């Protein structure tokens, strides 16, 4: 794999029974970029990021992450994955969840305490650390899920709809932090169906009906389609031409 890229996705198909949910996906992710996967619910975004992360297998094709074919346990340990559904122990408090996941990642002692302090400050849950997670709102659970994904300081972050249910002020704070993480050398993949979030990404992969229909920077995609917005560009690539 070219050193410019840290993830290479080649000819990926995924079938559930006779239903093809991903169809010949080819995409390379650059090191130290924020790549957005943009598409409506059911487009195949979640399935694709689970294959990249090594959580599920593809039906065809292959994925390489850091020059290693996935799934590979060592590489999976260097990925922070935030699922669309919160994978938290609701009978435990936030601090207990973070300690549990931290130990799974091999963190302990002072390092674990430092990382908990850092990530909990990012997601603004300092005042709710001892609260049982079952008493959290949906937005608070999303914030805690993001904290667990960041806890082991991975080189690659894969975030599936990370800001769903989060208020605009905290959403901005999270995007500010994602840009700081990119500046520190992290590679970040974010799935979204929110057009203004798509504009914040370095590049976009547009997905519809299991197919990758376009790849480029937000500005490139708008320029190529004579569009004023990412939404217009998406509709163009999806088969609805602009009348401009």
Note the main sheet: 6 strands, mixed
Which CATH architecture of the largest domain is right?
A: 3-Layer(aba) Sandwich
What is the overall pLDDT average?
91
The unreliable regions are none
Per CATH, the class of the largest domain reads: Alpha Beta
Write out the strand line-up for the largest beta sheet, numbering strands in chain order: 6-7-8-3-9-10
CATH superfamily label of the largest domain? P-loop containing nucleotide triphosphate hydrolases
- Morphology: globular
Work out the count of structural domains.
2
Q: How many helices? A: 9
Q: Give a count of the beta strands, DSSP E runs of length 2 or more.
A: 10
- CATH level-3 fold name of the largest domain: Rossmann fold
N- and C-termini, Cα separation: 40 Å
Please trace the helix and strand order, writing H or E for each element.
EEEHEEHEHHHEHEHEEHH
What percentage of residues falls in helices of 4 or more residues?
25-40%
Counting helices, strands and paired strands, the structural category is: alpha/beta
Strand content: 25-35%
Rounded to an integer in angstroms, the radius of gyration calculated over CA atoms is 18 Å
